[in-house]
Design goal:
This protein is mainly α. The protein has a single domain, classed as Four Helix Bundle (Hemerythrin (Met), subunit A), CATH 1.20.120. Helices cover about 80% and strands about 0% of the residues.
Amino acid sequence: MNLPNILTLSRILLVPFFALLYLSGWEGRYMATASLFALAAFTDWLDGYLARRLNQTTPFGAFLDPVADKIIVSTALVLLVGHHSDIWLTIPALVIIGREIVISALREWMAEMNTRGLVAVGWLGKVKTTVQMVAIAVLLAHAPGLTQPLVLLGYVLLYIAAVLTFWSMWLYLHAAWPVLQEGAEE
């Protein structure tokens, strides 16, 4: 257990508090929840940076980091969809969560086929994650309502993230297609 792994675990432990805070009804919950989410997004960057900088990358960390990301992003999107009750927020949330499920399954399949390196995270995934985290933080920081310019900005950013999400999924599936075909023929 090293510092990067502790930071990653802290993101997972933050999720119940984050969700309860958002659902609390407290007047200041939007900014407080957005701040917790932004802290989690920062620790996502920080744990990766420290793991590489301090040469503390571990198989456990490589497994846990994407799990922590998926848990906090999925939780935030479910909370937002439930609170906004809006089809225009639901659509990109479904794309993002659906992609995470598909890519997780794909990575597991590729690991079984000893070809996991074909589906490594690339620059597009990093851009997608950044846009997605900013969009979610903006949406968490404000009460629902498309008349608010920052909420509208959050929606636009979430749609950009959804497009990048779909594009990155296509790239992963394209890279893995020969192995998937080979596996299907066996």
